[in-house]
Amino acid sequence: MESTWYELTDAAIVSDMGQRLRQVRLTASLTQQNLAELTGLHRTTIRDIELGKPVNVLSLLAVFRGLGLLEALDTALPHPLRHPVSGSRKALRQRVKQTKKT
Known about the structure:
The protein is mainly alpha-helical. It has a domain at 5-69: Orthogonal Bundle (434 Repressor (Amino-terminal Domain)), CATH 1.10.260.40. Helix content is 48%, strand content 0%. The chain is built from 5 helices and no strands. Helix 2 packs across helix 3 (43-50) and helix 2 packs across helix 4. The radius of gyration is 24 Å and the shape is elongated.
């Protein structure tokens, strides 16, 4: 893909993802039917994903799993180093009230 992701419409991104997933499937020597059986999805769902049609996120995850691409999620969605809620909390500093000069 030569343009940046932000220059593309959502539909163009989904279409590109579908084409990439198709290439991965073909490189793995899998038919749409083979991948459907691996994932538990219907073959038409695999076809729809490859054609860039809107699909359920769970279906997309099933295809990632079936193609051995789940590790790619670590690159796209890295784990935070420290969770802000569970991390240590510093004591809040209290505001000092100014005294009135008389």
